[in-house]
Each structure stands twice: as C-alpha cells, then as structure tokens.
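Cross-posting from the modeling subforum.

Setting up a comparison between two proteins and wanted a second pair of eyes on the formatting. Protein 1 (sequence, then structure tokens):
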Amino acid sequence: MASHSDTLVVFFGATAGANGGKLGSDERELILLVWQIVDLHENKVGKLHRTLVQPDSVDLSEQCKEETGLTAEELCKAEPLESVLQQFHQSVSAELKSLGRSSYTLCVDGPLLIRQVLHPEASKKNLVLPECFYTFVDLKKEFHKCCPNAGPVKDLTLLSMLDYVCIQATVEQEAGLREVKDMVLLILHVLADPYNHKFSAFETVNYKFESGACKTEAVDSETVIRARGLPWQSSDQDIARFFKGLNIAKGGVALCLNAQGRRNGEALVRFINSEHRDMALDRHKHHMGSRYIEVYKATGEEFLKIAGGTSNEVAQFLSKENQMIIRMRGLPFTATPQDVLGFLGPECPVTDGTEGLLFVKYPDGRPTGDAFVLFACEEYAQNALKKHKQILGKRYIELFRSTAAEVQQVLNRYMSTPLISTLPPPPPPMVSVPVLATPPFITTGNTRDCIRLRGLPYTAAIEDILEFMGEHTIDIKPHGVHMVLNQQGRPSGDAFIQMKSADRAFMVAQKCHKKMMKDRYVEVFQCSTEEMSFVLMGGTLNRSGLSPPPCKLPCLSPPTYAAFPAAPAMLPTEAALYQPPLLATPRTPQAPTHSPAPAFAYYSPQLYMNMNMSYTTYYPSPPVSPSTVSYFAAPPGSVAAAVAAQPTPAILPPQPGALVRMQGLPYNAGVKDILSFFQGYQLQADSVLVLYNWSGQRSGEALVTFPSEKAARRAVAECSNIPLSGHPIHLACCE
C-alpha cells in the first residue's frame, strides 16, 4: 500500500465460541464480521456493514448465543468465509473510490481477531487472505500512546477507554454494531483537539517463516515455547503454519531429536516478543490435522541447546540463506560427494555442487550414514524427495525435509566429544552412609535377569512401579530399580528392574506385559544387564536387537567405593541408600584403618546430576529398592540391629503349585482351548498364562499352574504330544 494514513477500516468479529479476551483460544470459527470506514483527513465515517459468516460447524457456545444473539438457523443461511472476505474487499474498495482515497488500514480492538482467529482459520481452510489483512492498527496501543496515564495496554478495554475520555458508550442492541460504533467514536475523539493523534504504529503479520541459522546470542526466555505432540514428519514450515498469524523470529523453529537422531515430536519455537509468545500459549491443544498440539513455556537456554551451533563447518554450510534443506539417511559408509550428486541427478541440482553437501561424522571421522543437502528452490527439493527409498549402492536411502536447527543439532550430537574422561575428581567426603553387605553394583553380562518397562505414565514414581509389580517385588534385587530420565531430567516413560534370576524376570515379563498402570498399558520385556547398560548409555533396545550408543564406547566398569573409618551408626534413609549410577567414574578403593569396624562409603548426589554427556539423551536415575526393610540385603554391624528393630511388613508368600510349559500351540489357541486340553485336571482360567513375543503376538507357548507337582508330572506324562487343533503339544515341567 502506498500510504497507511488515508483511511482506517474499523473491523470487528465474533466466533462461535469464546469472545473478548479469550477470542481464538478455543479454535472456534468466525460467525460475524462488522466494519465501517473512517476518513482520517476529513474525519468522516462511511456506511456500517454487518455480515454473518457460515461456519463448518454451527454448534454455538452458550456464551456466543448470549453475547451475539445469533442462532444456528441464521448462520446456515449465511455465506462461507471465503465469499464474505471477497465481499468485504469489494465493498471497501468501492467505498474508497467514491471517497477519492487510495489505501486503507484495518483498525481492531486488540490483535486477537487478526492473529488468533482470521489467519489461523484461513490457513486451515487454505484461503489466500487479501494483502490488507497483513497490516493493522491496534486501537489499544494507539490509545495508550495518546493517553499513557490510562493504564497498561493489557488492562485497557473499550469501555475503560471511553470512560477515560468521558465519552458515553453507544446504546445498541445488536452485537458487533455496538463495538464498531464505540471504536469509531473513540477514533474521532483522539483525532480532534486536544489530542490531534496520528496513527502510526502499524503492526504486521509475516507472510512466511524465514528459515536460517540461529545466532548464538542470548535468547529471551519470555519469547520461547515448547510444542509437543507434533507429527514426526512435520517441518519447520508446518510448525510455522500452526502458529500462523504470530511472528516467529528468523530461524526460530528448532525440531528436537531423540537419542537416535530422529525427531521426537517436539519443537522449540522462538517468537519476536513476549506478546506473541503469550498468544502462542493460548493455542495449547489446538489441532494440526487430527492431532492436538500441547504448547508450554520454555527457556532461551533450552532453545540455544537445540538450535545454537558452534561448529564452523555448520555455520559455513548454513551461510547460504533461503535454501531448501533435505536430510539423507542410510547412506553407504563409502559414499562420496560424487555418489550423492549422481544419486540426486540433474533434475535436482545441489546448490554449489559438493559445497552444498554436509556429511555427518563421528568424532573420529567415521561416517554416520547421514548427510544434509541444500537446494535453491522448492521444485528441486520436491524432485529430491521423490527419490525417497531409492537405492544407492546396496542400500535404500531415506530423504526428509530438514531445518537449520536440525542440522546444528545432529552435528552437535555426533561430533561433540564425550565428557566421561574429563569428569572432575570426587569432592571430599561430606556425608557418611552405611555400605550394604551386598553392594548394588551393575555388573554387565548376558544373563537375561532384568526387565524393561516401556510406556510408563510420566507421573509414575517408584511406588507405582512396585504396586504394578505386585507379588513379584520380592524378587527384585536390592537397589535394582532404575528410572530412565531424558535430557531435561524428566521421566522418559522407561525403567529397568534387576531381578534375582532369569526365570523370575521371564515370569514377570509374561505376567505383567501390557498390564495397566493408571490409564496406560505398560510393555514389559526381558533383557540382560548388558542390554540395560547400553540403553542407559544412549543405545537402543528394540525388536531388531541391540544398537550401541553413538559414541561406540564400551560399557564402563562398575564403580567402587572408598572406605572410611566407622562413624556413628545411623538408619539408612531412602536418599542415603542411593548409590552412584552406572556411569560414575570408578574410584580407587582404600583399605579401612579399623578392620573390626563396619566400612562406610559416601556418595555425592551432585555426581549424578553433573554427568551431562553430550552423546546421549537418556540418563539413569539413582537406583533404588522397594521401600520396605525386608527387601534390603543384610546391613552390617549396628545398622543391622537398628533395621532388625523395625516391624517386619507382611510379604506375600510364594504361590503354591507347579508350572508346566506348553510348546507348539496353534497361534489362535486361547485359554478355553488350553483348559479343554487339560480336561479332568480341575484347572481354573487364571491358572493359564498365554505367552507373547516382543511384537505382541502369541508365541505358541503357554505356562499352566497345577495345584501340585504330582499333578503337573502326571499331566506331562499323560498329555505330552497329544494334538491340539492338529498341532502336537510338547509339555515340560518348569524347575
């Protein structure tokens, strides 16, 4: 527009849900638009227009019905938003022409109508808004400039502004007309003496999000949010579209990655100021497609950890602005830049040839199989994405849209040096804690005497896990519960538990798999201490087997404990019983000076929290045991006496009976089929446990509990190799 000073178009709207200060917070659609022209040169007003808008859903909230007086029947007869916006643009243009004016600017009572309603709704409906909706005047901010003593902008309302300048509010019954008339009165008043106000603070809405590298400067925490629940394939442009109407800082979208370098459904977003950040928080649980997105406050430090880059190589790669970035994954380790350029072909030329390629490598220079590629335009990027899962060498290559923040995050993750070798020496002892007779060392091995709990509620505590385990808590090793935390120190939904034997771990995994905890089912898998240690160090454990952590380091040896002279006896508390986690630096043991006295070791709680290794997202919590004295190993000396004085809680006795394992079952065999197979043995339904594999499918095996060992052996002798649905069943007694 040539000038913004010719004309104002006073603009008002209402939605089918919340209005006023909560306008747009509930994602409801526009149902009413009202506008009127004000000539700033002649101080004249034009015709008042009021138009209904037909929403996709005519379900009106009670607040809306009360404030607007509209009904569903009226809205069903109205035009859709696209037609109404065309009518608005044509009407205003014709009226301006009759007044001899060439340009206009919208004037609204606060930014919510434009930023929180109109732009998000148009984006969801794929409507192209006219240029006039990208610039507007906020009447509250203009009034505050004119009358600074009227109070802060956020506290101003239309009625309070009218009262301040002693203007009587309009008496009007129809909603929308009343508000527009009051706004026009206020504008004309501040244009006249003694104010003679000039409207000059024009706000803009960004046409598109500008990607780019984030500068490692301080970031105001009042401008950053965390979005959670994003589809894994979301790009920075998709996230910017979710926040359409709000201005995101350049390069202000940082997609978060998990320990394996894959997107975890979260992103940190930086806005240009705190006002836009606060409006973004009001979009909590708004929808991106069919998924609702959670929006929370975040800090500038969190944003810089994800988006800030320190590598000169990354900075040079991202120095070319306005480029499309594609991530390639699964490249052969022997792939060269020429191989990648040949794979992409002439239909999608890479910016500056090999200079537009960035291979991701480990600190020792070995390739990871990932690379980032720059393209000059959207067309080239789209052509590259069409090669998703095509073959290079003997491997298929995955291609995804990427962002500058993801480039920095991936490079920082793989190329940073692990900090284990540079951990500070332990501080001098400050607290004496009794050492248990059986130290809770995590010794790695292939014995599958551990279980992994996956899918825990994020609010789950140790007590919830013990309740979930039920009668099997008596089989937990001392200090055998390990909660897994993410990089922010919050629960990851995983936990590891060390059991007394592999058989116990197997039984727990079968009986507790997909059992409910609170409102979620929890998956339970049997694993070894070696697998547990790898996961706690950042590796992955899934159906495909074990993947070591990115650093490729071997597991560290278990920590040892320094011994100190005897101290006054004290009863171990839950906090005192925490021992250093697996990743603690080993300590050289010292011989005790008084052999008859019990040995004591100290553990500095800071050690665990300071172990912030850059190559992994997951850290183990301090290992703990069930919180009853009977679960502890026998403590030494006077501590044992103190423990013995405590009342012994009741423990569930072991279940009577004998187990028989069935093998070779048809995969559709259920509990009723198994009970029929053992007809005459008087078994109950709860005596049968059908076993499942890691993928959640029946394994063809089952465990059956018989009332006595004699009955179990008789069943094995009589029923072994008898067919069930044509399948011979093998039976064996479990030791």
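Protein 2 (same layout):
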Amino acid sequence: MADKEDPKNGKMGKGKSKVVCGYPLSIFFIVVNEFCERFSYYGMRAVLVLYFKYFLRWDDDLATSIYHTFVALCYLTPILGAIVADSWLGKFKTIIYLSIVYAVGQVAMAVSAIHDITDSDRDGTPDSMTFHIVLSMVGLFLIALGTGGIKPCVAAFGGDQFGEHQDRQRRTFFSVFYLCINGGSLLSTIITPVLRAQECGIYSKQKCYSLAFGVPAALMVVALVVFIIGSGMYYKAEPQGNIMLDVCKCIGVSLAYTICINTFYITAYQQWLKKLLIAQIKMVLKVLFLYIPLPMFWTLFDQKGSRWTLQATTMDGNFGALVIQPDQMQTVNPILILTLVPIMDSLIYPLIKKCGLNFTPLKRMTVGMLLAAIAFVCAALVQIQIDVSTKQLLHSSPYILSGQGFIYFKLTIKGKANSDTEIVENQAITFVGFTDYFLVYFRFVNGMKTAVNVSTAAADFGLIEPFYYSNYSQIKNGKATFTLRSGSQSCEYSTNFGFGSSYTFFIHSTLVFGSNCQDSVTAVEDIKPNSVHMALQIPQYFFITAGEVMFSVTGLEFSYSQAPSNMKAVLQAGWLFTVAIGNFIVLIVAELAKIPKQWAEYVLFASLLVAVCVIFSIMAYFYTYIDPTEIEAQFKKKINEDDEDDKSKPGKAEVEMVKRDSIKCHDEYDKATQTKM
C-alpha cells in the first residue's frame, strides 16, 4: 500500500479514509487496537507475580525480581521502537511487526501455564518445570519487546491521521485514547484474576493461569487484526530520522563546530543557527538533570503489582457479597486515578492557588514523592499486623512456614481409647501437605469400618478406605456442602471455609446416615483463616495513587512545557527510562538486600524516597522556569533578520565553505520537527 499524501497539506491520498462526525474513520481502528492491547498487557501483568509464586513455585524475592525485570524491559524497549519507527520502518510497519511478536509472546505465556503438558503422572503438578520456565521467559521477552516497541508509535500514528485544520478533533482523540488505556487496564485487572481463580485442566483441575493468560493473548490477536483491517485508510508518513539520534549527532557536531569556529568564514545567519541549537540542547539537559532522582518514585510505585499483591495473598478478601482476589486489589489504582485527576484539577489545585500558595509543578512532584513514601509506611503497618496474626497461627496450628511461601504441615492423629470407636490403636497417622495463602484446602479422615465416598455438587473427591485419609483438595472459600455416601446410604455435611485456611474433617465411627451428619463430623483448623482484611490496603493504594497523580501527570506536563518544540520526544524517552531504572532498583534490593522482615523493607524504601525527595526539592529550588516557545521565537526572529542581511552581501561562494556537518545538522532538525516518538 503506497503512502497517502500528507493530510496536513490538504491533499487527497490513495487510501480511502472517510470522515465520520468530523473524525477520520481510521482513528476508530486505532482506538479499538489500543483498548485491546492495553487489556492484553495489564491483564497478563495482573496475575504474573502469582503465576511465578504458585505455578512456577518461586519464592517471593525471585518472583518480585523477575516481575520488575520484565517491567523494566517494557520501559526500555520504547527507545528501540522509536528509533526503528522513525529511522527505518515507519510507524505503521513497526506496529504491525512488533504486534505479531507481542501476540506470539502472549500465546507462549498461555501455553507455559498449561500444567497437563508435563504432568505425566496426572497429579496436578508439572513434572518438568524447566519447560514451563523457559517458555514463560521467552514469552515475557517477546511481550516486553512488543509492548515497549509499539508504545511510542500508536499514539503518534493516531495523531498523524489529522490535518492542520483538525486540532480540536486531535485533542479529543488523545483524550479518548488515554481513556481507552485506563479502561483496558481497569477491566483486565478485574477480569483476569477471576479467570485465574477458576479451575481447569485435562487430567487434573488446577488454578487456571492458562485461561488468565489466554484471554489477553486472544485480545492481542484481535488488536492486531483490527489494526490491519484499517490499513487502507491510514496516512503512513515516511521515516524521517529519529530525534534522539539527531540530538546526539548534533551535540558532537556542535563541539567540533565550536573548535573550528575561528577557522572558517561563518555568516551571522549560521552563527544564530548554532546558538539556537545549543540553547535547545541546554533546555533539554537541564530537565534531564532533574530526572536523576526520579527513578526512586517508580521503585515504590510499581511494587503495587508485586510486593503488595503478595501481601494481599495473606489477607482476607471477603467483603460480604463480594470476594476480592489478591490480584484484584490493583483495580483500586485505576479507579482512584479516574476519580482523583478531575478532583485535583478542578478543586484541589484551584483551592491552593486561591490561598495564595505558589504550588509550582516541581513542588507538586515533591509532594507526590512524599505521598508515595507515606503509602509504604501504611504498607509496613499492615505488614506488621499480618506478621502478628501469622505469629499467633504458628503457636496454634501444627504447620511450618517455608521460605518458598508454602505452608507445610504435619499432623498426628491418635485413636480414642474406646474399644468400639477407636480409629487407630497404639499408632499414628502422619501426613504432610502444602497449601498457599489464598486457597482453601481440606481433607477427610475416615474413622468408620466401611469405605466412604465424599463429594460436592461440583466435584467427587473419591472413596476413602476405612481408617484412612484422603488427599488434600482445593475448594473456594465460603459455604460448602459435602455429601458422604456409603453404599446406598448418604448424608450431608455443611460448613463455612475461611479465606486462606486449611481443614481436616474426622468422620466418627458412630456416624449414622440420615438427612445430615453435622454432629458426626469434627472439623479441625490445620491453618486458621486469614484474619487481616484486604480493606486495610486501601489507604496505601490511596496515597500511592494520589502521589502518582501529583508526580506523574504533573511531571509529564512539566517536561512538555520546558522542552523545545523539536525535542519533546527526547524528554519522553528520558521519562520512560526513569521508570525502567526504578524497576531495576527493586530487583537489586530484592536480590541483594535480603531483608528478613517485609515491613522493614517497606520502611527502607519509604526512607530512601524521603531522602531522594529532599535532594530533588533542593534541585527544584535552583531550577529556573523558561518558555521555550518564546526563546525559540527570539532566535528565529534574529536568524531571519541576519539571513536577509547575508543575502545582500557579496561573497556567497565563501559562505558555502562553511563546515557542512553543522548545516546538515540544522536540516535534520527541521525534518525532525515533524517526527514524534
């Protein structure tokens, strides 16, 4: 498909993009594509850390480290994607090719979570974990390459579809575009944890991570197909060179130009071009210098998908009519964003201004850092409460808490001294099992002289021989009714399961079958239910989200306002780079610090952010706000004046002897003004 003519020039292109309500029809395909892609990414990421811990059986530190390595790669690859799109393939082809890579990665993740592939003995546990680990790591790498590579292209490609006369429509498009990002994030974070909590499998039923990854994979395929369908309607700009590479080149040329300035004859016009270029680069470097302390904020912020989710697995998610999964607590963040952004813009900031306070963007960012630190203090307090609860369980339940995050317990059951009701005389039944925090496990011990079958409406747990016990089975928390059957006789036993608990049920030898057998079954709590409620996490989510609104939204606005017109993409790349560095810091702390108490790690991160906040506030105090548009206008006015003077002077041949690299550098910048990251 040949590229269309530039719509900014008002020419008709070879594509046939119709106008609907003043908008090019092509942008509707882009909006749908973005919604599906964001659903795919955030849906997969929502359950990722639990997949590491409970499917791959990694400990908390390793699960956290790999999670943040993946997130860091997702924020490093946009730089690569921008360079490829602007210098080689163009935005359209880059989106197509990397979306294919992205979809393959999502499919690989879904396949890696099918436990039956290597479960040869059909016990519900993969026999070869290496296969699942390797396939999942390959999938995550492809996803990071795909989502990061298309991140800087899709929004800019959508903006390219509008002409100069469609500024209002373009602004509306970007608003809808970012609404789709938040909408996809919110819905996927609600839906995929529900899918994960289902049980699926060919030979044995386990938590359905394959479905939780499979649905995002399907959405990514839909995103790719929708984008391709609109192919004939798009305006596809030719690659014009990447602004980041141009900046690096021009810094080098500028240095060489300064050395040679006295050697060649330089016109006043070119002198001003050189000064404008240097002024633009100085503006960018001043803002990039302020970025140095920023990664620490992202170090704390992105842990809501790792450490905070793992914290939620040790808590009670029963909200009455609604049961919240640990990974669903992340939905609090996008909900609060959609609530707090308009409140901040229309109420908080105007109120502060009316009070006569000069609440500058850098001051807002500083407050945002402090709010994030407060969020981690709240997380530490919640963790202390959880630790107290866990300590009580250690004294009251016969289990051992391993470093892998699983609970191994050993229970000895001795028979009664009564001759007609004894289960086992002079010996003990000893068994070892494991559970995780947010599932309910149970088993039955048969004290009768006949075999008993135990089942529910959803599953049959098999026949239990006399004086023997069943294997542990999983069940959802809440009320459950069991049917106990021996031959043609049966009765029902009902009980309520607490969140994250484990039970053993003893069937008495005196059991009489009838309508119910409540009095003939004794329940023992091997592991008490989680007693700390997930609602206690809401304050920390509130503070971290308020911090995000004041830090991230304001930071992007500040960067845009302080950047020259042709170098805004450079600051966008720098901003994404701070997110990547912040995630690498989590990786370093998780793997090297090895802090035994989780609450102490939270306090450490909060303290580090406070220290960085002080440094940033000092740097902000000495920063001078500028208006790049006004500065560039002054330079351009002087350039135009001196250009007219140069044209009236003889010696044009001598002017052409000026070092060509500096002129080429300026020409590249003129072209780059139309290039977006």
